Amino acid sequence: MESFINEFITSELEGVGSAEEVLLHRRISPYATLRPGDLATLVKFQQSRLHHPAALRPAPICGSTLPEDSDEDACPEEVSEVVLNAADQGHVPAQYTVKGLRRHEMPVIGVYVDTRVCSGFRYRVRRAGATNTKGNTDYFWGGKARPLLSIGMGYGRRLTFQDDQHNNNECYFWSDSEPAGYAFNIHAVDIGQKFLIQGEDDAVLGEGCVEAIHEPQEETSMTAVEGHVTKHVAVALTCRITYYLKHHYGLMELMAHEDQETITGDAVLVRPRPSAKATLEAIEGVFLPRLGNCKFVPDVC
Fold it and tell me: Please, which domain of life does this record's source organism belong to (predicted)?
């Protein structure tokens, strides 16, 4: 046995090239017999993998879980630079450039206010491109989403948000007061919000409670007809689900079984014409492994 190792394996390890070169040179087919020399080549190739594991490790993509020793900022959020023309909105022929705008955000700068920014809906706001000393996004009001009450007229348009103090509202700013501009992010769903789960026949099949919100909540479409505004917002949530068990005669009771699911859906926000406040009507397009296609309707009780 010792002579076999010395004659074949040891001799093959000396001066061998890469494993790919050897295998291509010999043109090993699926039907070929693995020779001792091939075994030696593969042994050396495996040894090189042990010494250089990082070279063969696939690079993580954005949104994947990174190793513990890696930098969590290795995959920065997608940002862009947009050029805006105020003349497109019927204002003075001014042109603005907003940098560091993320794909789910809407710009406000100078006299320009993105047409998707509407009063009655809730937004999180930050200065475009601004981060704090720790490298995190620095939102106004501690990151709290506030309803936009009004958008003023004129060149410097005042944007007023709902404040916790009714007699002394300090939640406002002017569109032209920040040279870099502002970034607006719509907010549709809250942590702790409760829903009833309806099937395709509108029967109530269970209930859910939001435990986590995975940013961003991104507006996908908007329609406005005679003051009636409807927005669709893509959301990703982790919910605690409780299923209902149906009995005869239309009775039902809670099942002991609960589950936690991460879902995606289309949150539908509606602001009727007489109202100054938008409400969440439902989260549509939800799929649960146990129930199939369904929708989440806010539990107002």
Answer: Eukaryota
Which one, of 107, 118, 109, lies nearest residue 91 by Cα?
109
Q: Which of 122, 107, 87, 136 is nearest to 217 (CA)?
A: 122
Residue 63 within any structural domain of the chain? no
The token pair that represents 32 in the structure block? 């070929």
Q: Which helix (H) or strand (E) holds 173?
A: strand 172-174
SS3 category, 226: coil
Residues 97 and 50 in one domain: no
Residues 6+ apart with CB under 8 A from 116: 106, 186, 219, 222, 231
The DSSP bridge pattern shows strands 122-131 and 228-246 to be unpaired
d(CA 62, CA 252) in angstroms, rounded, equals 44
- Within the chain, residue ranges assigned H as helices are 2-4, 11-13, 19-26, 36-51, 53-56
Residues 199, 246 share a domain = yes
- Given this model, what pLDDT does residue 111 score? 95
CB atoms within 10 A of CB 257: 10
Do residue 89 and residue 180 come from a single domain?
yes
Q: Which domain holds residue 279?
A: 194-298
pTM of the model: 0.70
SS3 label, residue 100: strand
Q: How far, in Å, CA of 270 to CA of 185, rounded?
A: 17
Question: Is residue 66 one of the residues assigned to a domain?
Answer: no
pLDDT in tens, 68-96: 332 333 334 567 899 999 999 988 899 99
Whole-Å CA distances, 155 to 108, 148, 169, 211: 12, 19, 22, 42
Q: Which of 140, 163, 187 is the last residue of a domain?
A: 187
